[in-house]
Design brief:
The protein has an eight-stranded mixed sheet. The chain has three domains: 191 residues, Heat Shock Protein 90 (2-Layer Sandwich), CATH 3.30.565; 128 residues, Ribosomal Protein S5, domain 2 (2-Layer Sandwich), CATH 3.30.230.10; 154 residues, 2-Layer Sandwich (Ribosomal Protein S8, Chain: A, domain 1), CATH 3.30.1370. The chain contains 18 helices and 22 strands.
């Protein structure tokens, strides 16, 4: 029987390895940007076409490569960062495995031009499918330029599974933002299909903290400058810096949340829990904090070599980092008066108020009211006379006696006691309220409980409806039908509003404009990252247009991460969640009846779009059992 085990060809092995390193165009962008940073570049330009499917070009002004290094950089496991196993635990650069360029070259048409400062000519290398087609000298600027063309051209199955241009562009922007935030000392430019998306100048600030703040506002907009509270703590185990978002600016969706370890973006659910626990009792349960947190640790205290993308790390003492991070955030929240605190020191504004007058006597206040004054009376009534003045004097005397009685009553009454008349009055109020409730109950109407639930009689007992989930179900089916039939009702605005979105949200809004307008919006692109809103869905006229649109896009992105939904279902869920009534809203009788009627007119009235129940019923037997009848 012949032998059946054999070595794979290098091209096939590289394509298999590329499946782990190069998952989509954003993976290529990440590797090339990090290589440019490691090369010491101060200016990096990223040019993409068709969301990276046609072209990804990265240019930098770094130190460049020699002819030999340029050729060796495309070999698997060829690296300048490490020479033995011990070096793995002293790494401070981005890349070190030597897999990225080899994997990219195996699944694309690659061209490299690179020149060092001391060389007169640079080197040009062309590789297709892992095979070197040519290598020759060329004239080029100092640094390196990578051209990645027709990604996955030789693996049609992989190319077929790429998402739409809008989705792939969003992933590219995410990777671009992560590298740009980690290095405010480097200038970045991103251009997509000839349109400049980002132009980030090098941070010109006196400190790293100020430079980071400048970069954050450049990426996410000037409003973020007022939303951030700084973090700064130096310990033997870890140095923590960066910013956290103030609680009042927390978002309903997972927004800007970044962890950087030694300036490398990482994902860590355990550290995220530390941040969330530090915001405990400061945020609603459905709100998410914003944070840009940088950790500096000795490379020997963590392992970054556990995942090909190097976004997951393993800490030597994870609990210690958790405790320090949580304490630092709590300290920042208190230091910048964000968290509620008790101040036992007297306010400066109260120190100048004397506790009692100098003569030791308290002057009794007087009431000065003229009951005969009529602002609409003419001059004749105003000059009428003496009778009004006499009545005015009597009212002053009467007021003085009433003040005296009030003081006597206050002195004679002891704390915690009630007079007979007060008890009788409270009893009358309680009885009157109870009678009113009885009238409504006997009328067969609905009752609202704590501004959250609607109680209604049914033949078998009692029905309890969650008003928010019920309204969300109603709106969801309404919006879904509007998307399917393009019948969304739009309320035109008298004065159109201009809304500027974050670059990543802007790219997504451009892709979804047609579907968003089918919901009832009337939005049109207007310049870079800007939209003009001419109309909103009927019933949302009183809502803030910017928050409504940002919430719709944010909910759409969150649903993409948590659930695999089609575009229409995703948008309908997101908008229904944004526009449904909030807990605590008081409903009138007619509103409660309309809510119940519309809920049971839905196709699936017993569950919200996320599957949670909208209705709970208690039969008479259940109630009798609880009362042990």
């Amino acid at each position: 029987m012949p032998d059946i085990i054999r070595l794979l060809p290098d091209t096939v092995a590289n394509q298999i390895a590329a499946g782990e390193v190069v998952q989509r165009p954003a993976s290529v962008v990440k590797e090339l940007l990090e290589n440019a940073v490691d090369a010491g570049a101060t200016e990096i330009r990223l040019i993409i076409k068709d969301s990276g499917k046609t072209l990804i070009q990265v240019s930098d002004n770094g130190k460049g490569m020699s002819e030999t290094d340029a050729r060796m950089s495309f070999e698997r496991h060829a690296t300048s960062k490490i020479s033995n196993a011990d070096d793995l635990f002293a790494i401070r650069t981005k890349g070190f495995r030597g897999e990225a360029l080899a994997s990219i070259a195996a699944v694309a048409q690659v061209e490299l031009r690179s020149r060092r400062e001391e060389d007169e000519l640079g080197t040009q290398i062309i590789i297709e499918g892992g095979e070197v087609k040519s290598q020759e000298p060329c004239q080029c600027a100092q640094g390196s330029v990578f051209f990645i063309k027709n990604l996955f051209y030789n693996i049609p199955a992989r190319r077929k599974f790429l998402k739409t241009d809008g989705v792939e562009l969003r992933h590219i922007i995410e990777e671009f933002e992560r590298v740009a935030l980690a290095h405010p000392e480097v200038g970045f430019i991103l251009t997509h299909n000839g349109t400049e998306v980002f132009h980030l100048e090098r941070a010109n600030a006196s400190s790293e903290q100020a430079g980071l703040r400048q970069r954050i506002t450049s990426v996410f907009g000037n409003p973020y400058n007022q939303r951030l509270a700084p973090l700064e703590e130096h310990t033997d185990a870890v140095i923590i810096s960066g910013f956290i978002g103030k609680p009042e600016f927390a978002k309903k969706t997972r927004g800007e949340q970044f962890f950087f370890l030694n300036k490398r973006f990482i994902k860590n659910s355990y550290l995220h829990h530390a941040v969330v626990s530090a915001f405990e009792q400061l945020l609603p349960t459905d709100a998410h904090p914003t944070y840009f947190i940088f950790l500096e640790m000795a490379p020997s205290s963590f392992d970054v070599n556990i995942h090909p993308t190097k976004t997951e790390v393993k800490f030597e003492d994870e609990r210690l980092v958790y405790a320090i991070l949580r304490s630092v955030i709590k300290k920042s929240l208190g230091q910048y008066n964000i968290a509620p605190t008790l101040d036992f020191e007297q306010e400066m504004s109260l120190k100048d108020i004397p506790l009692q007058p100098e003569n030791g006597q308290v002057k009794q206040p007087g009431i000065h009211v003229n009951p005969d004054y009529n602002p609409f009376a003419g001059d004749q009534q105003k000059s009428a006379g003496s009778n009004g003045n006499q009545h005015w004097q009597r009212m002053q005397n009467h007021a003085g006696s009433d003040w005296q009685k009030m003081f006597e009553t206050h002195v004679s009454a002891t704390p915690g006691t009630q007079t007979e008349s007060e008890t009788e009055t409270q009893g009358q109020i309680l009885h009157s309220s109870w009678d009113e409730d009885e009238k409504q109950n006997t009328g067969g109407g609905c009752q609202q409980l704590h501004g959250r639930y609607v109680l209604s009689h049914i033949k078998s007992g009692l029905m309890i409806i969650d008003q928010q989930r019920a309204h969300e179900r109603i709106l969801y089916e309404r919006y879904l039908k509007a998307l399917q039939n393009h019948t969304g009702h739009c309320q035109q605005k008298l004065f159109p509003e201009t809304v500027e979105l974050a670059p990543i949200d802007s790219a997504l809004a451009l892709e979804l404009t047609e579907s968003i307008n089918a919901l009832g919006f009337d939005i049109r692109p207007f310049g870079q990252h800007t939209f003009v809103v001419h109309g909103v869905p009927a019933g949302t006229e009183d809502r803030d247009v910017k928050k409504l649109l940002e919430g719709l896009i944010g909910g759409y992105k969150e649903n993409l991460q948590d659930m695999k939904l089609d575009t229409g279902d995703n948008l309908a869920r997101s908008l229904a969640k944004q526009t449904s009534i909030r807990p605590g809203k008081t409903l009138s009788d007619s509103e409660m009846r309309a809510l119940v009627d519309e809920l049971f007119a839905c196709e699936l009235p017993y569950a919200a779009p996320d599957g949670k129940p909208t209705v709970i019923t208690y039969s008479i037997e259940d109630l009798d059992r609880r009362f042990k009848r």
